[in-house]
Specification:
Layout: E1 4-8, H1 13-25, E2 29-34, H2 42-51, E3 56-59, H3 65-72, E4 79-82, H4 89-94, H5 96-116, E5 121-127, H6 151-166, E6 174-180, E7 182-184, H7 203-212, E8 218-221, E9 233-234, E10 236-238, H8 239-254, E11 262-267, E12 273-274, H9 275-286, E13 292-295, H10 310-316, H11 324-342
Parallel strand pairs: 1-2, 1-4, 2-3, 4-5, 5-6, 6-11, 7-10, 8-13
Antiparallel strand pairs: 9-12
Helix pairs in contact: 1-2, 1-8, 3-5, 5-6, 7-11, 9-11
Length: 343
């Protein structure tokens, strides 16, 4: 039986790399929807350049339930991987309503669609930000969820709570929420990577934009944190590793291996890297020197977070394998590809 998988936010950074993993490692038929609020439909051409495959895709806003239902009427969907959401921490602090309105409404419409069209497998794109400021490391799935540090993080907490409560009903939907840590890097081909329409707020694209001259300098947000060098600690994970984990989680559900209707799994490497260590790795790997200053802390940032990886290894037989040097060099290769195309 051929399975058709719907990927929401498929033109985005993690969505597009997950589509590549679906094409390269499964026989699934893939359909993608995106409203291009922070992405471009050029992404699908890049996917075709790498795989030789056209991806069926639609310009659709998930907050428009009627449009979503109209599309799904003619599709026989086996599972959904739901990425589509606004994701900038600083923007969510400035404009909370935009984040609550979009991220929650779109999820509710997806859940209703699963119910209406008898779609039984859902992978929800969550985030390590649901843990808030946490003291005990590494973070496991049983770690307590603290107060969210930003409205973005709060929408992910709310999304998880909605899905958990919904799982207690008689509906047959099975869901895994994947709480991933900090996705970085680009596909090994160098032909696709992170290219948001809006200015990036994540560290690695800011580093590569600074190195290539799109920014005169970059700012490290806080050098006075209680960490080994004063900068924030994050668990950086290669985006293709995250894409592979989504495919494994989806297969886990489709193959009936889960005894739970709702589960959460962390996706990380298990080791924390400071901002200064990430900068040093980029400089030593690429030979490029970065012009940066240390500024004040940024609202919404947690001090340190990295993952306990035992559950993903045990349930999904998945482990992130890409070293930091390869993550930053792939991001740099992609930034150079972007420059070449824009010249």
């Amino acid at each position: 039986m051929e399975h058709t998988i719907l990927v929401t936010g498929g033109a985005g950074y993690i969505g597009s790399h997950t589509i590549l993993e679906l094409i390269e490692k499964t026989s699934f038929n893939v359909i993608s929807i995106d409203n291009y609020s922070n992405s471009s439909n050029e992404t699908y051409q890049r996917i075709k350049n790498i795989t030789g495959r056209d991806v069926e895709h639609y310009n659709l806003d998930l907050c428009d339930k009627d449009a979503l239902f109209q599309l799904l009427k003619s599709k026989n969907i086996t599972g959904i991987i739901h990425f589509a959401a606004f994701k900038s921490v600083p923007e969510s602090v400035e404009n909370p309503f935009k984040y609550y309105s979009n991220n929650i409404t779109s999820l509710l419409n997806i859940i209703e669609a699963c119910n209406h069209f008898s779609i039984q497998n859902l992978i929800f794109s969550s985030s390590c930000s649901v843990y808030g400021n946490i003291e005990k490391m590494p973070v496991s799935e049983t770690s307590e969820l603290n107060v969210a540090e930003s409205p973005y993080a709060h929408t992910k907490q709310i999304g998880e709570e909605i899905l958990e409560q919904y799982s207690k009903t008689t509906n047959k939907l099975q869901t895994i929420a994947l709480r991933y840590f900090n996705p970085v890097g680009a596909h090994k081909s160098g032909l696709i990577g992170e290219s948001p329409i809006n200015p990036p707020t994540s560290l690695i694209p800011i580093i590569t934009q600074t190195a290539i001259g799109l920014r005169n300098s970059m700012q490290v947000h806080g050098g006075d944190y209680p960490t080994r060098d004063g900068s924030c600690i994050r668990d950086y994970i290669h985006v293709s590793d995250i894409g592979e984990a989504h495919v494994k989680a989806l297969n886990y559900l489709i193959e009936g291996k889960s005894s739970l209707k709702y589960d959460v799994i962390n996706l990380g490497t298990g080791s924390g890297v400071t901002v200064f260590e990430a900068i040093e790795s980029f400089e030593s790997t690429t030979g490029e020197k970065l012009n940066y200053i240390v500024g004040p802390r940024r609202s919404g940032d947690v001090t340190a977070i990295y993952s306990d990886t035992s559950k993903s290894e045990q349930l999904l037989n998945w482990k992130a394998n890409t070293p930091l040097s390869e993550m930053v060099s792939s991001a740099w290769k992609w930034q150079q590809e972007l420059k070449k195309n824009n010249n």
